[in-house]
Amino acid sequence: MDRLKRTKFQKNGKENMKSKDPNYAVKVEKAITEKYGEETVQHPKKGWNDEKEKEYLEDLKGFYKYEESGMDEEQEINGVFIPKKLITKNSKRSCPVCNTYSFRSNDDVYMSKFNCCEKCYIQYVEGREERWKTGWRPKNG
Question: What is the pLDDT of residues 109-127, one digit of tens each?
Fold first, then answer.
């Protein structure tokens, strides 16, 4: 039944377009206004004035000044330069076992639970969780 309604509507829409009703656009706009409200058919520049334009441009300048100010501040971590705004004090990105720096989400899981990366978990912890929890760590070197 729904399919028949759609087909009928599509046919009616095509007929209106074929007959080139000069008021078709007005009728569609009126229907949209009734269904969604007056604001949906207003021109975007209706409420725009010189004061709003000036305010918008100042906000835009402020945004780009903020973006440019943080670009020069970078910190080197294991040979990689990372913007300081991305580095937090609580972030654990270097594995304390193998000193590898990683952005992988899998490493986050193992880092929070076992304080090591996924690679070290597989090599040293998997199957030996109790020993790891007691404080055993591999010797580096």
Answer: 888 888 888 888 889 988 8
One-letter amino acid for residue 89 of the chain: K
CA 52, chain centre distance (Å):
28
* Residues in contact with 116: Cβ distance below 8 Å, sequence separation at least 6, in sequence order: 95, 96, 97, 98, 110, 124, 125
Question: Are the C-beta atoms of 84 and 73 separated by less than 8 Å?
Answer: yes
Q: What is the DSSP string of 88-122?
A: -TT---B-TTT--B---HHHHHHHHHHSS-HHHII
Separation CA 132–CA 139 (nearest Å)? 13
Taking the model in full, what pTM does it have?
A: 0.36
> What b/e readout covers 65-88, taking b as 16+ CB neighbours within 10 angstroms?
eeeeeeeeeeeeeeeeeeeeeeee
CA distance 3 to 9: 10
> Which of 77, 79, 72 lies closest to 94 in space, CA to CA?
77
Are 117 and 111 spatial neighbours (Cβ–Cβ below 8 Å)? yes
Residue pair 85/66 in contact by the 8 Å Cβ criterion:
no
